[in-house]
Design brief:
Elements: H1 2-17, H2 26-46, H3 48-53, H4 61-73, H5 75-98, H6 100-113, H7 117-132, H8 136-144, H9 156-203, H10 215-242, H11 249-257, H12 267-277, E1 284-287, E2 290-293, H13 307-337
Antiparallel strand pairs: 1-2
Helix pairs in contact: 1-6, 1-9, 1-13, 2-4, 2-5, 2-9, 5-6, 5-9, 6-9, 7-8, 7-9, 7-13, 8-9, 9-10, 9-12, 9-13, 10-11, 10-12, 10-13, 11-12
Length: 338
């Protein structure tokens, strides 16, 4: 019962207060550590002795450097993910010796910092309100704060698509996955997941700078989200039923389109939302002027408009609440069995 109460309390804390700026957020510390580690890791990768150790010294200079970066890049998830788990476990262990309820309270707060239901909804609804006011420049700017694509010349439909895709994708990254890992290992594992996700967002890019150094971080994040992403399709379909939207169509859309997404996981929540709303996601994006044409997901039964952002936020709220209840019930059953 305690585990279930902690998870539900964490979800409620995030819904009510989100991430107040006055309270230091663990992700800020993770970001600082990631930045500080980068140069020492690159220095190690350039060391000829390390390249010999990894068996890359006999290759060309470029191949040698890339292989060394890949090997040293494994250190990112080991240090950040493992370190986050160990630190949180130690803090809770020490607090538990003072008083168990103190540890329970801190654990609920720590789990809440790994969830971003309120923050995600606020970001989406800000773009929705600006579009309804007809303020495209401000809507483009608000979208640029949560996506990596170029937003300077987007129309209402493209702004809407960017917002819907981001909210849909983050149903997994920002809510379901942290709750899933909180079920398995409490705050230590939820925080370890947040470290993995933060790593992916900072060094998991397929560009010249991070393609090799960040490959382990990107793969680790893909692995961590594999199960929650697939569960998201079921819970978005369930949320569609609650909201009186077509609840069979999300699953049909997922079966047809999810695998077309360049990410092994993001296609599941995005195609499920597209199916629920009868819209088409994906298409042509620009990143620093470079075109990237992504596979289309869903049938364009209606044109994209601002109202679809509001419906996506509703789907996010309902699907995440259903998942939180499911996780809490599962935690209770597991406690009884164990």
């Amino acid at each position: 019962m305690i585990e279930a109460a902690i998870i539900l309390a964490a979800y409620a804390i995030d819904l009510l207060i989100g991430d107040p700026r006055a309270i230091p957020h663990p992700v800020v510390g993770m970001g600082y550590a990631i930045r500080k580690l980068e140069q020492p890791m690159r220095h190690i990768a350039r060391w000829r002795g390390f390249q010999k150790l990894t068996g890359s010294a006999g290759s060309s200079d470029t191949e040698s450097a890339n292989r060394a970066l890949k090997v040293v890049g494994i250190g990112y998830p080991i240090v950040l993910v493992g370190g986050s788990f160990a630190l949180v476990w130690l803090v809770l262990e020490l607090l538990g010796r003072i008083h168990p309820w103190l540890a329970y309270a801190v654990e609920a707060w720590l789990i809440s910092t790994t969830i971003a239901t309120k923050g995600l909804a606020d970001a989406g609804m800000e773009i929705y309100r600006l579009l309804k006011q007809g303020d495209l420049p401000k809507a483009r700017y608000s979208l640029s704060m949560i996506v990596g694509r170029d937003t300077e010349s987007l129309n209402e439909g493209e702004i809407t698509r960017g917002a819907v895709e981001t909210v849909a994708e983050n149903i997994v990254d920002a809510i379901l996955s942290p709750l899933f890992f909180a079920l398995i290992g409490g705050a230590p594992l939820a925080m370890a997941y947040r470290a993995a996700n933060t790593l992916d967002s900072m060094v998991g890019y397929k560009n010249d700078k991070y393609l090799h150094l960040g490959w382990a971080s990107a793969r680790f994040d893909d692995l961590a989200n594999w199960i929650p992403a697939r569960l998201s399709a079921l819970f978005i379909a369930s949320a569609s039923f609650v909201l009186r939207l077509p609840f069979r169509r999300p699953l049909r859309t997922v079966s047809r389109f999810a695998r077309l997404h360049p990410s092994p996981n993001s296609g599941f929540p995005e195609s499920a939302v597209a199916g629920a709303l009868g819209i088409q996601l994906g298409g042509l994006n620009y990143y620093k002027g470079v075109a990237s044409d992504r596979a289309r997901m869903g049938e364009p039964l209606q044109p994209l408009e601002a109202e679809h952002i509001r419906w996506t936020v509703r789907l996010m709220y309902v699907s995440s609440a259903l998942f939180a209840l499911f996780v809490a019930m599962l935690a209770t059953q597991l406690h009884r069995i164990i």
